[in-house]
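Morning, I've got a small favour to ask if you have a moment. Here's the protein in full, and shout if anything looks odd to you:
***
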Amino acid sequence: MRAAKNGGKKAKDYQESAGTARARSYVQLEHLVSREEEILLPEENNPDARFTMCLEVHIDALIMHAFDQKTMEQVLSKQMGILQEREPKVPRTCLERATLRNADGKICILPVAFKKSIISGATGLESTSGMNLRSKMFVTGHSIPITYETQSNRVDMVRVGQFPNKVADVRFRPQFDGVTAHLVIRYPGKIPAQTMVDLVNRGGQYGVGEWRPEKGGSFGAYRVVGVVSDIKEISRIMSEQSVRVPPLTIPDWALDHEISTVLAAKIMSGDYSEEEEGCRPATKEELEAHLGRPATKEELAEFFREVTA
């Protein structure tokens, strides 16, 4: 009889604690998102609602290599058959050109870099199937300024050119350690707030910047370390992120020359870069040395697609 009473008491305590936990989760949800239309609890599940969430993320180490105006003009002249004298490299100048800055001069990351990593992390998950995050989830702003603890100047030996005729060269790039950034994310109301945080953390495993995990590197991985719930602070962050990065422009001398339409599309979409060219492995042996094990058939297939691209 006593055991039955104890069992009933434990069941009652469990129900009360479960109810408290549910109430607490709703409070966290209200603090997690800012109100644009209304705060919706999960059971209401209004697919037309839009939530805005502001997350603080941390990156242990970030390598940056901006595709700047001068580099774009060099690529254009080469593809148009216009010979130009190759200028000697000055490390300080190379490092400054590799640093992405917005119009206010602040070092930043493009929002699309974070969105791409989140989309990559969500690909194939059952919990996001049918949600079409690519067109319904946005990392807002034109630039995401970063703060960092230390900056170092990297010099990496690289191989450039077409496989198998790659030649040795050097790259000077800035590395930022202890990076903090804020992501203002708009997402569909049918995604629970905690699920959205999990998706951002999953995207962090793919990373941003040069030699990120998605490209076989070990830099640029990020994780969520906090949530900004104060509306005034969110507004300040959004205002700071509304500053644009100066766009690349086609110079006047190139307007009347022929250029590959494929290359032009890559340049104007921002997809053309020398990203990770010097950091990623250039041979099968280097790939397996980087992995620390024999490469699988799928890894070799992907590797040879990249080096012959």
User: Anything to note?
Assistant: The chain has a mean pLDDT of 76. The chain has one domain: 34-278. The longest helix spans residues 2-32. The longest strand covers residues 167-188.
